[in-house]
Design goal:
Number of helices: 8
Largest sheet: 6 strands, mixed
CATH architecture: 2-Layer Sandwich
CATH topology: Nucleotidyltransferase, domain 5
Number of domains: 1
CATH class: Alpha Beta
Order of helices and strands: HEHEEEHEHEHHHH
Distance between the termini: 15 Å
CATH superfamily: Ribonuclease H-like superfamily/Ribonuclease H
Shape: globular
Strand order of the largest sheet: 1-4-3-2-5-6
Number of strands: 6
Strand content: 5-15%
Structural class: alpha/beta
Length: about 200
Amino acid sequence: MNSSLSAPSKDVIATLPLFPLLERPSIVLADTPAVIQKALAELKTFTALGFDTESKPTFNKGETSDGPHLVQFAVAGRAWLLPTRIPEAQAAVAELLHDAKIAKIGFGLANDTSQLAHKFGIHPHNLVDLDKNFRQLGYRNSVGAKGAIAILFQQRFVKSKRISTSNWSLPKLNEQQIVYAANDAYAAIRVFEALQSWGAV
C-alpha cells in the first residue's frame, strides 16, 4: 500500500470545475410530524445513506455545544434534514442510526457520534467513516469532503465558512443553511459510491 499519497492542495482545488450540488427542490426539510414520518419511511428503504450533523457553534472559552441541532441524510439524488428540537425527528434519527442494516456514511464522524450519544443517548450502528477508507488507500493525512471530491471527481466542492458557523439551532433555517447541510451528507454518499466503483469499500 502506498503510504505517501496526499489530497490536492487548496490552490490546486481552486482551479478545478465546480462539483454540482444538490439543489433545493431535491431537499426535504422534515420539520412536521407528517413529513418526518414520510421521510423515515423513505430513508428506511435504502441500505446506505450519507450522514452528517450540524450544531450551533461555540465561540467562548469553556462553552460546550448543546448540539447536534440538525441531522442530515442523503442518497445520490435527494437529501432529508431532521431538526432535533422536534421530538418526532429525534425518534426518527435514533431509529435510523440504530438500524444496523443501513450504513451511515460520512467524514470525521467521531464528534458527531459523541454529541449524539451525549445529548440523546444515541449510539449509531454501521457507521462508515470515509477518512478511514482514504487512509487504507494510502492517504497519510485526513481527507475531508473537499479533498475526496477533488481526488475522485476532479471537481471543487464549495463549503461556506460563514454558513458552517451560522446558528443551526434556529427554529427556521434559511435556504442557504438548508442547501449547505444537505450537501454535506450528499457529498459523503457520492464519495462512497465512487469508492465502491473503485472496489475500495
